[in-house]
Design goal:
Pfam families: PGM_PMM_I, PGM_PMM_II, PGM_PMM_III, PGM_PMM_IV. Residues 12-133, 160-259, 267-373 form the Alpha-D-phosphohexomutase alpha/beta/alpha domain. Helix 2 (27-44) crosses helix 5 (131-140). The strands form four sheets. Strands 1, 2, 3, 4, 5, 6 and 7 form a seven-stranded mixed sheet that branches. The N and C termini lie far apart (48 Å). It is built from 15 helices and 22 strands. Helix content is 36%, strand content 22%. It has 456 residues and is of the alpha/beta class.
Length: 456
Amino acid sequence: MARSAESVSAVIKAYDVRGVVGEQIDEDFVREVGASFARLIRSEQTSDRVVVGHDMRESSPKLSQAFADGVTAQGLDVVLIGLASTDQLYFASGLLDAPGAMFTASHNPAAYNGIKLCRAGAKPVGQETGLAIISAELVDGVPQFQGDPGTVTTRDVLDDYASFLRGLVDLSQMRPLKVAVDAGNGMGGHTVPAVFGPLPIELVPLYFELDGTFPNHEANPLDPANLVDLQRLVVESGADVGLAFDGDADRCFVVDERGEPVTPSAVTALVASRELAKEPGSTIIHNLITSRIVPELVLEQGGVPLRTRVGHSFIKQQMAETGAVFGGEHSAHYYFRDFWGADSGMLAALHVLAALAGHDGTLSDLMASYDRYAASGEINSTVSDAAERTEAVIAAFSDRAVSVDRLDGVTVDLPDHAWFNLRASNTEPLLRLNVEARSGDEVDALVKEILAVVRA
């Protein structure tokens, strides 16, 4: 059936499919997406099957089954892996050398669901690499296939996924650790026990019950409010480290033994250091919001830092083009060459645990060397004209700017290692501000000055 361009564009975003179940997304819709995706794959003659996984949301099983029906109706086979984290689906895509579809809305509220699509080997599918074609077919109506339908099989890859991740990190010298984990009622409750099970870890679990209504807090650890329960648990239980996963468990946030958050930039620097120790001179990717500690450390250790735009499609593209061994984002997405260039919060967590286990002191001691700067975090402002406000800020700092670049929004470098970035949202009338400087006082002063212009 043909659909309006407006209804399709509201759901098929730049990087994935996402919307409110029953209003924007239903079984008929995802069945057509599945059919169109199968046509795309069949036209490329790259695979004869698609692997499908889903998270714990109430709508996920039926939607993933409808998608599978759409794929098989176009003559391709489907491998259902059932409950999975997003990086578990990426693993299956790599293991089976097959395109994949993951049903999840990540950290969005319970009313939402969506699809993350990839080609074989976990290669991303975005607007320019397939989603625009799928959108056009949904508007025109997906042509029917005249051949025989495909088949559906099931396969449990959880143990294989867990074993594969453990094999990528040297865990042979691990000392016993007490690890508190907040799964946020998301897929971490499914994957953490499988991955950590054979390790000398005393697990202190929090909200491991799979529940797509998220009864305890949003499964979005990027919001500090959603880390509070884990911070309290770490201190009360005497844990060595705390880990928090988002809804589909592809992002991981770290809390030290004091209950203090460890920035994703510091985790990026730590993992980069470990990867460079294994492969000296390697390329490390970081997005432009990541702390300057990352490129500084990479250079100090003889590596090649590569700065990129924010967003997984840009980083994965750069990973493929440069052969970079690792990449990290300020949002706690961590990408690994040996994981098909895809992101895995669980793999980053294993690196943190291995580093801590090989260190005589506490996690806060270990991370102190990666804590050179203070940062504001992302601050959003509602504006009527993002471009005009951005230019006003640039003008206000013209006499102090060391450099200005427009790789993604605008980044202004200031004296003594201070800098800020302003980026306009693609979907909302927002300007996003990130500031970094030597001290918290300097960050606060810069934020105040910039927001006075942005919100004038």
